[in-house]
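Sorry to interrupt, but I need a hand with the structure work. Could you add the entry underneath, on a fresh line?
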Amino acid sequence: MMMMTMTSDPRFVTPAVKAMLRQKNCLMHAGRVEEANALARLIRTVITRRDTAWLRKVDTRTCTRAAWAKVRDVIGGGKRHGSQVVDGITAQRLNDRYAAVSTDHSYRATSRKMSAPNQLVHKTVTESEVFGMLDRLRPAATGLDGMPAWFLRLGAAIFAAPIAHLFNQSVREGIVPRQWKSATITPVPQVSKPVQPSDFQPISITSVLSRSLERHIVKSYIYPSLLEPRTGLTINCLAVF
């Protein structure tokens, strides 16, 4: 049996907004930043007006149910799926299996320390760098946040500044946002006829933003640290032939 998932544009991404977003990206590529910023403000106004008109008829005082229905529609909630059974294996059995093999009860969190070269301590990712990351995103699986790569690429000019702030805050604090660590796990059969949870290989898919930040950390911090390790981090290796 083949299962197909259909995706659609977010409610506020109308054809007019799409056209303006494409035009905004073209202006950014051409270096016409002021015009691009003016168009971004216009796009924000259009989306705000549309959302305002959409929510205007909701009276939170007399009909809270309708208000919460709108909230669920915005955040994509309210979609409940029952526990499906595949060849006698339920989602709960798979969850228990993956939780058991992924949990280390003797784990102790290590203290954080700066191991990157000194010149990288105060390095930050710029808005233009984030724009480049988003603008070059390739089609990829969507994470638990439901934000597809095509949407981030289409709105790269608008999203670049706030995402750059989030990236820098995460690096500065040494903390990855919990939402970026959450993942969608897809069980992939390793045998032709799986009969037990161990016959499935878990494929973990984090959000597109989480993967983008990971690539930035590896390129900007880990690779330079390997090339120029700080004193005390060098490991002497003995080659055995």
